[in-house]
Design a protein that fits this description.
With about 220 residues, this protein is mostly helical. The chain is about 60% helix and about 5% strand.
Length: about 220
């Protein structure tokens, strides 16, 4: 009886080890899969996001700046030029929060490397560099379509708030965030003004309007 038990122990132990190994492999696979892209959910830890993203308020976001072009470096440049506000760092971080890494680098490079001190003193440095950010043609074309649709649905109402918000998203957000505008393009195809305007208000964080709909 003892010999039979010993013979059974080895296969059982082997099977147990194989099961543990497969479970460990599955855990490792899930660990790599769970790392989020920009704009995706995270559970409070930077490791939940793909590098170099960080977990900010349960969402994977780019860190506030890239090496050499973060808010500290930008504000140091402005301070050297005697053009920095007392709350420069706070304003900078609020400005670039949720921006794509490419937009942050372009913005930082403009302030740190491209602007002269004279330029920073004559005008708002952040505005000078914002208008120099790339505006992809396909994104600009979509914004222009949105403006036309808004004008058709709300004749006589200013489209400037939508223009500013759409162009800002087009210039500064990653593809994942820009894809939120896909829903509005679909609403335009459906042709229902109430849905079109509601989508613009939601996606671009505009003040809702109560004007009557005018079907295109």
């Amino acid at each position: 009886m003892l010999k039979l038990s010993n013979r059974l122990v080895a296969p059982i132990a082997l099977v147990t080890l194989l099961l543990l190994s497969s479970m460990l492999g599955a855990c490792r696979a899930s660990d790599s899969i769970k790392q989020g892209n920009e704009g995706e959910f995270c559970n409070g830890f930077d490791d939940d996001c793909r590098a170099p993203l960080v977990c900010d308020e349960s969402v994977c976001r780019n860190p506030l700046g890239v090496e050499g072009y973060d808010c500290r470096t930008m504000c140091e440049k402005l301070d050297t030029c005697e053009a920095a506000d007392s709350d420069c760092r706070v304003r900078c971080e609020n400005t670039i929060r949720q921006w794509s890494l490419d937009a942050v680098e372009q913005f930082g490079r403009c302030i740190v490397d491209e602007l002269t001190c004279e330029e920073t003193r004559e005008a708002e440095a952040h505005q000078l560099c914002y208008v120099r950010l790339d505006l992809p043609e396909d994104r600009q074309a979509r914004c222009d379509d949105f403006l036309a649709a808004r004008g058709d649905c709300r004749p006589g109402e200013s489209t400037e708030p939508l223009r500013q918000a759409c162009y800002q998203m087009a210039r500064t957000r990653s593809d994942i965030f820009w894809e939120y505008s896909d829903a509005c393009a679909e609403r335009i195809e459906d042709g229902v003004c109430a849905d079109i305007v509601a989508c613009f208000d939601q996606v671009f964080d505009l003040e809702p309007t109560s004007s009557p709909d005018n079907a295109p």
